[in-house]
Each structure stands twice: as structure tokens, then as C-alpha cells.
Specification:
- The chain is α/β, with parallel strands linked by helices.
- The protein has two domains: 26-221, Ribonuclease H-like superfamily/Ribonuclease H (Nucleotidyltransferase, domain 5, 2-Layer Sandwich), CATH 3.30.420; 224-290.
- It contains ten helices and twelve strands.
- It has helices at 3-19, 98-104, 108-111, 118-125, 136-144, 174-180, 190-202, 212-221, 237-243, 267-278; strands at 27-28, 43-53, 63-74, 79-82, 86-89, 130-133, 155-157, 183-184, 224-229, 246-247, 258-263, 287-290.
- Strands 2, 3, 4, 5, 6 and 7 form a six-stranded mixed sheet that branches.
- Strand 3 and strand 4 form a beta hairpin.
- It starts with a helix and ends in an 11-residue tail after the last strand.
Length: 301
């Protein structure tokens, strides 16, 4: 029996198991099988980025692995080609925490002597029309610390720029999302995570049928407004938290105050809420427009 015949037998078995209603079969992700042929229309260059780091503190953690994979997509949100990845390792100043080594498989011995090649990174990223990440609020601030090239590009996020709950999807981890599309992959290494992220962009959402990439780009193109409840009464904090406000302690992002980010068409409703339920009087509140050039960054400009 040839490998092709074996694959067909296994796929037939998988379909029969699924048809029984008693089994759910996951298939190993093969990115090449997710790419659609080009019909010759003009394309743009996206790049998917993933960082493995020494921890979760975006201000203090160090990059230990970074990968960026370029891909071409058309106006319909179809990914038509994937390029070769840029992959770099980096030895941190301090030993890797044991829990990070256990998750990633990266060790002090493996990273010894490796350094990020910043000029190579910058030359590579320069040609990107937009950068993608899964949890861009983590990846973007970390890479912005190593080069300004990451600050001047627009960003989008496969975790936050899709209304996954509205589509009937509960989990938002990359592995959970792909599991919903019946795929699995080896997580927590940068290249593998980038390939999985690109594959996720090719999927069709379960309710709307829209391509994930199309939905992510739609969100990225829509400006939002960051509204600050500056000088809100202390006793209003629980009401603000229930509504989704977060506390800002970083002056680079605006006033030290509770804030929320809302679509442009909901600004008036948000101001009405603040004036009637929080301040109980008319107020002039600081607010800033946020586009894909600022979104997920640690800066407003």
C-alpha cells in the first residue's frame, strides 16, 4: 500500500468515525493545503508574527524566539501564497524560567550565543502592508521595544479582531480555535504558531461563513475611540468594571483613569452613560481615535 492509499484509508476511517456522531477527529494542520490558487488579481503582503519570551510582563520579559512568516492575500481575503519564515533565537540576560522551558522546549543551552539580528528584522518587515499576531496586545509591545519598524506598521489580531463568541466559539487560544475547525498543531514554538495563525486566517467562520482574514481586516480598518472616565468617583469603579472599563496606569496611553474602547457609532451612547450614571452632570472627557497603527501598542502615537 502506498502512502497515498494509506492516507485515503485513514481519511475514510476518520469520516466514518465522525459520521457515527460518537467521535470528533482532529487532523494535523498542513498549511500548504489551506492556500488557495491565485487568479491573478493584485495582492498585498501580510506577515504573521509570533514571539516566545521569558514571561508575560510585556515591559520586562525578553524575547527568546521570534518568527515572522510573510504571505500574499487578495481583496477577497484569500491567502494565495506563503513565503519563507524569518526565524531568530535570542539568549536572554537571565536563565530561562523552568516553566517557560517546559512549555517551549527552549533551553539556556539551545539559546546560548544567539542574538536578534535587528537590521535583518527591519529589512524583512519593511515590505509588510500589515502585521498579524494572535494576541497582538502581547506581541506588539514586546517587539516595539527592539525596533521602531514595528511601531509604524498597522497591526491586526486573530484573537481579538474576530467576534468569536458571536460565531459560537468559546475558546480564544490558537489551539482551541483550530480545534474547532478540526485541526491540531504543535504549539508554543514561534514558526509553528505563525503557520497555525496563517491557517486560521484561511478558515470560514461557522455562522457568518466569512473568511477569518476578511473579518480581521474589516476590524482592523474600522477606527475605534478610547474614552477615559477621567476623575470618575472612586465609588463608581465597580460599575465601570462591569461595563468593561479597564484602569490605565501608564501616562503614555492617556490619563490615569478608567477607560474603554468603543466603535465610532457608540461614542455618544458611552458619553451619555458616563454623564448620567457616573458623573451625574455634563463633562468634557478625554478621548482618542485608535486605528490599526496604534491598536495593541503601548503608545497612542
Amino acid at each position: 500500500m502506498t502512502n497515498t492509499d494509506s492516507e485515503r484509508c485513514l481519511e475514510d476511517l476518520a469520516r466514518r468515525l465522525e459520521a457515527s456522531g460518537n467521535f470528533r477527529v482532529l487532523r494535523r494542520l498542513k498549511l500548504s493545503e489551506c492556500i488557495e490558487p491565485s487568479d491573478g488579481v493584485q495582492t498585498r503582503t501580510g506577515m504573521f508574527l509570533d514571539v516566545e519570551s521569558t514571561g508575560l510582563d510585556i515591559r520586562a520579559s525578553e524575547i527568546i524566539e521570534l518568527s515572522i512568516i510573510p504571505f500574499e492575500y487578495d481583496v477577497d481575503g484569500r491567502i494565495v501564497s506563503v513565503g519563507q519564515p524569518l526565524h531568530q533565537l535570542n539568549e536572554p540576560a537571565n536563565p530561562i524560567p523552568s516553566e517557560i522551558a517546559a512549555i517551549t522546549g527552549l533551553t539556556d543551552q539551545l539559546l546560548a550565543g544567539h542574538r536578534l539580528d535587528i537590521p535583518a528584522l527591519e529589512a524583512f518587515v519593511e515590505r509588510a502592508n500589515i502585521l498579524f499576531a494572535h494576541n497582538a496586545a502581547f506581541d506588539r509591545p514586546i517587539v516595539e521595544r527592539i525596533s521602531p519598524i514595528f511601531s509604524v506598521k498597522p497591526w491586526a489580531c486573530t484573537m481579538c479582531d474576530v467576534p468569536w463568541k458571536e460565531e459560537g466559539v468559546e475558546g480564544r487560544r490558537l489551539s482551541e480555535l483550530l480545534s474547532g475547525f478540526k485541526y491540531f498543531f504543535e504549539a508554543h514554538r514561534a514558526v509553528d504558531d505563525c503557520e497555525a495563525g496563517i491557517a486560521l486566517l484561511t478558515m470560514s467562520l461557522p455562522k457568518s461563513g466569512e473568511r477569518v482574514l476578511s473579518r480581521v481586516l474589516k476590524s482592523a480598518r474600522q477606527p475605534t475611540w478610547r474614552v477615559f472616565a477621567d476623575a470618575a468617583p472612586f465609588e463608581a469603579k465597580d460599575l465601570l468594571k462591569v461595563r468593561g472599563y479597564k484602569w490605565n496606569a501608564d501616562r503614555a496611553l492617556g490619563p490615569r483613569a478608567w477607560w474603554i474602547e468603543v466603535p465610532s457609532d457608540l461614542i455618544d451612547a458611552e458619553v451619555d452613560f458616563l454623564q448620567s450614571d457616573i458623573f451625574r452632570s455634563p463633562v468634557q472627557l478625554p478621548m482618542f481615535e485608535i486605528t490599526a497603527f496604534q491598536r495593541y501598542s503601548m503608545r497612542l502615537s
